[in-house]
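Recall the central idea of this unit: under ordinary conditions, the amino acid sequence of a chain determines the structure it adopts. In this exercise we apply that idea directly, starting from the sequence alone.
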Amino acid sequence: MFTFRHLRPQVTVSHDDGALKVRIKRHHDRILYIIFSLALTVIFVSICDVFLTPFFSQPWQSSLLWAIPVLMFWCLWYYIGLRITLWRAFGVEEIAIDGKAMRWTRTALWWKRRVDIPVGDVTQIKAVTPWHTLRNRIEFSAQGKKHSLGEWLFEDEIMKLLQVLQKALSLPR
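Accordingly, the structure predicted from this sequence is:
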Protein backbone atom coordinates (compact mmCIF):
# COMPACT_ATOMS: atom_id res chain seq x y z
CA MET A 1 0.00 0.00 0.00
CA PHE A 2 2.71 2.49 0.98
CA THR A 3 5.75 3.08 -1.14
CA PHE A 4 7.32 5.16 1.63
CA ARG A 5 8.84 2.42 3.78
CA HIS A 6 8.90 4.39 7.04
CA LEU A 7 5.11 4.24 7.30
CA ARG A 8 4.76 0.51 6.75
CA PRO A 9 3.47 -1.34 9.78
CA GLN A 10 5.99 -3.39 11.71
CA VAL A 11 3.57 -5.41 13.84
CA THR A 12 1.79 -8.47 12.47
CA VAL A 13 -0.86 -10.16 14.61
CA SER A 14 -2.31 -13.59 13.80
CA HIS A 15 -4.28 -16.29 15.55
CA ASP A 16 -3.23 -19.87 14.81
CA ASP A 17 -5.07 -22.77 16.50
CA GLY A 18 -6.25 -20.59 19.37
CA ALA A 19 -2.78 -19.16 20.03
CA LEU A 20 -1.88 -15.53 19.53
CA LYS A 21 1.19 -14.90 17.42
CA VAL A 22 2.74 -11.45 17.14
CA ARG A 23 5.72 -10.63 14.96
CA ILE A 24 7.56 -7.33 15.20
CA LYS A 25 9.68 -6.79 12.11
CA ARG A 26 13.08 -5.15 12.06
CA HIS A 27 13.55 -1.41 12.17
CA HIS A 28 12.87 0.58 8.99
CA ASP A 29 16.26 2.33 9.04
CA ARG A 30 18.23 -0.87 8.57
CA ILE A 31 20.83 0.58 6.18
CA LEU A 32 21.50 3.51 8.51
CA TYR A 33 22.26 1.19 11.44
CA ILE A 34 24.49 -1.02 9.29
CA ILE A 35 26.46 2.10 8.38
CA PHE A 36 26.59 3.06 12.08
CA SER A 37 27.98 -0.36 13.00
CA LEU A 38 30.62 -0.16 10.28
CA ALA A 39 31.62 3.36 11.37
CA LEU A 40 31.77 2.20 14.97
CA THR A 41 34.06 -0.65 13.95
CA VAL A 42 36.37 1.69 12.00
CA ILE A 43 36.58 4.05 14.99
CA PHE A 44 37.27 1.14 17.35
CA VAL A 45 40.04 -0.25 15.14
CA SER A 46 41.60 3.21 14.88
CA ILE A 47 41.57 3.66 18.64
CA CYS A 48 43.01 0.18 19.17
CA ASP A 49 45.76 1.02 16.69
CA VAL A 50 46.66 4.15 18.63
CA PHE A 51 46.68 2.39 22.01
CA LEU A 52 48.21 -0.94 20.98
CA THR A 53 51.07 0.39 18.83
CA PRO A 54 53.27 1.23 21.86
CA PHE A 55 52.93 -2.35 23.13
CA PHE A 56 54.44 -3.81 19.97
CA SER A 57 56.87 -1.10 18.86
CA GLN A 58 59.15 -1.28 21.89
CA PRO A 59 60.00 -3.80 24.60
CA TRP A 60 57.43 -4.28 27.36
CA GLN A 61 57.45 -1.51 29.92
CA SER A 62 55.42 -1.25 33.08
CA SER A 63 54.73 2.39 32.23
CA LEU A 64 52.41 1.17 29.44
CA LEU A 65 49.97 -0.27 31.97
CA TRP A 66 47.99 2.98 31.78
CA ALA A 67 46.69 1.93 28.37
CA ILE A 68 45.03 -1.27 29.55
CA PRO A 69 42.11 0.38 31.47
CA VAL A 70 41.56 2.83 28.62
CA LEU A 71 41.50 -0.02 26.10
CA MET A 72 39.09 -2.04 28.26
CA PHE A 73 36.82 1.00 28.48
CA TRP A 74 36.77 1.31 24.66
CA CYS A 75 36.14 -2.44 24.31
CA LEU A 76 33.11 -2.16 26.59
CA TRP A 77 31.68 0.80 24.65
CA TYR A 78 32.34 -0.92 21.35
CA TYR A 79 30.46 -4.01 22.55
CA ILE A 80 27.50 -1.91 23.73
CA GLY A 81 27.42 0.17 20.55
CA LEU A 82 27.72 -2.86 18.29
CA ARG A 83 24.96 -4.66 20.15
CA ILE A 84 22.61 -1.67 19.82
CA THR A 85 23.31 -1.06 16.13
CA LEU A 86 23.03 -4.74 15.19
CA TRP A 87 19.74 -5.03 17.09
CA ARG A 88 18.34 -1.98 15.31
CA ALA A 89 19.48 -3.30 11.91
CA PHE A 90 18.51 -6.97 12.22
CA GLY A 91 16.33 -7.39 15.32
CA VAL A 92 13.04 -9.30 15.09
CA GLU A 93 10.70 -10.10 17.99
CA GLU A 94 8.11 -12.87 18.07
CA ILE A 95 5.56 -13.39 20.82
CA ALA A 96 3.41 -16.50 21.00
CA ILE A 97 0.73 -16.86 23.68
CA ASP A 98 -1.31 -19.99 24.08
CA GLY A 99 -3.52 -20.61 27.11
CA LYS A 100 -0.66 -21.41 29.48
CA ALA A 101 2.58 -19.77 28.41
CA MET A 102 4.00 -16.74 26.69
CA ARG A 103 7.05 -17.39 24.51
CA TRP A 104 9.02 -14.28 23.61
CA THR A 105 11.82 -14.76 21.08
CA ARG A 106 14.26 -12.04 20.02
CA THR A 107 16.57 -12.69 17.09
CA ALA A 108 19.31 -10.58 15.52
CA LEU A 109 21.67 -12.40 13.14
CA TRP A 110 23.34 -15.12 15.23
CA TRP A 111 22.12 -13.75 18.58
CA LYS A 112 18.91 -15.39 19.77
CA ARG A 113 17.16 -15.10 23.11
CA ARG A 114 14.04 -16.93 24.13
CA VAL A 115 12.04 -16.35 27.28
CA ASP A 116 9.19 -18.62 28.37
CA ILE A 117 6.86 -17.06 30.94
CA PRO A 118 3.75 -18.68 32.41
CA VAL A 119 0.70 -16.53 31.66
CA GLY A 120 -0.21 -16.38 35.36
CA ASP A 121 3.13 -14.77 36.20
CA VAL A 122 2.46 -11.67 34.07
CA THR A 123 1.11 -9.17 36.59
CA GLN A 124 1.05 -5.88 34.72
CA ILE A 125 1.30 -4.68 31.14
CA LYS A 126 1.33 -1.08 29.95
CA ALA A 127 2.21 1.08 26.98
CA VAL A 128 4.99 3.60 27.42
CA THR A 129 4.74 6.46 24.96
CA PRO A 130 7.00 9.38 25.91
CA TRP A 131 6.32 12.83 24.51
CA HIS A 132 9.28 12.58 22.11
CA THR A 133 8.00 9.22 20.72
CA LEU A 134 11.52 7.92 20.24
CA ARG A 135 11.18 4.98 22.57
CA ASN A 136 7.56 3.84 22.40
CA ARG A 137 7.35 0.36 23.87
CA ILE A 138 5.31 -2.16 25.83
CA GLU A 139 6.46 -2.87 29.39
CA PHE A 140 5.27 -5.85 31.36
CA SER A 141 6.11 -7.25 34.77
CA ALA A 142 6.61 -10.98 35.17
CA GLN A 143 8.43 -13.10 37.73
CA GLY A 144 9.58 -10.01 39.62
CA LYS A 145 11.27 -8.44 36.57
CA LYS A 146 10.31 -5.69 34.16
CA HIS A 147 10.61 -6.45 30.46
CA SER A 148 10.13 -4.17 27.48
CA LEU A 149 9.25 -5.20 23.96
CA GLY A 150 8.53 -3.51 20.66
CA GLU A 151 10.75 -0.48 21.04
CA TRP A 152 10.65 2.30 18.44
CA LEU A 153 7.16 1.44 17.16
CA PHE A 154 4.52 3.96 16.20
CA GLU A 155 2.02 4.91 18.88
CA ASP A 156 -0.95 3.34 17.09
CA GLU A 157 0.96 0.06 16.76
CA ILE A 158 1.86 0.14 20.45
CA MET A 159 -1.79 0.67 21.42
CA LYS A 160 -2.97 -2.13 19.11
CA LEU A 161 -0.31 -4.46 20.50
CA LEU A 162 -1.26 -3.53 24.07
CA GLN A 163 -4.94 -4.34 23.49
CA VAL A 164 -4.13 -7.67 21.85
CA LEU A 165 -1.72 -8.71 24.62
CA GLN A 166 -4.11 -7.63 27.40
CA LYS A 167 -6.87 -9.72 25.85
CA ALA A 168 -4.62 -12.76 25.34
CA LEU A 169 -3.19 -12.55 28.88
CA SER A 170 -6.63 -11.82 30.44
CA LEU A 171 -5.37 -8.70 32.17
CA PRO A 172 -7.55 -5.68 33.03
CA ARG A 173 -7.35 -2.68 30.73
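The chain has three helices and eight strands.
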